[in-house]
Amino acid sequence: MDGAAVFRTDDTGASWTDITGDLGGLDPGEIRSVEYLASPLDGDAVVVGANRGIFAAHESGGFSAWEQVGSGLPDAPVYELDYDAPEDRLVAGLFGRGTWSLLVPLAPTSLVFRDDFETGDTAAWSSTVN
Question: Cys-Cys crosslink for 74: which of 12, 28, 36, 97, Cβ 3.0 to 4.6 Å?
Fold first, then answer.
């Protein structure tokens, strides 16, 4: 990650691959944080926090097909991301807007990778962390 691009290594840093893909088309602004989500059911994902939201790329798309994560997040830079695997919760720290969380069930219908058209979609950010 360099503020505008996202890179991946699978050899402990000996070489890097640009996985920015179509992220620029989503107009994220400056990328400020990154988190890796390991999922035995969905495959792994890379999640980045930026000036204009949170975006994810799935392993099955070569980590280069990006989408915005959830809805209802305030318009503020995302300076910190943390994934709590036991609770399936992605937590985001926003500049001046507090901490927000999103439940991310690790199942074939993971909220990180839903397109917001499924019946009963609940991929909305919450300003309270339980």
Answer: 97
Which amino acid, one-letter code, is at 78? V
Write the pLDDT tens digit of every residue in 34-51.
999 887 666 789 999 999
For 58, other C-beta atoms within 10 Å of its C-beta total: 21
Q: Residue 120 carries which DSSP code?
A: T
Q: How is the chain split into domains, by residue range?
A: 7-113
What token pair was written down for 23? 């992220």
- As given in the structure block, the two tokens for residue 3 are 């503020």
The answer to whether 45 and 67 are in contact (CB under 8 A) is: no
Query: Please, what sign has the CA dihedral across residues 62, 65, 70, 75?
Result: positive
CB atoms within 10 A of CB 21: 16
Compute the average pLDDT of residues 52-66.
90
Q: Dig out the tokens for 98 from the structure.
A: 């507090």
Read off the DSSP letter of residue 119: T
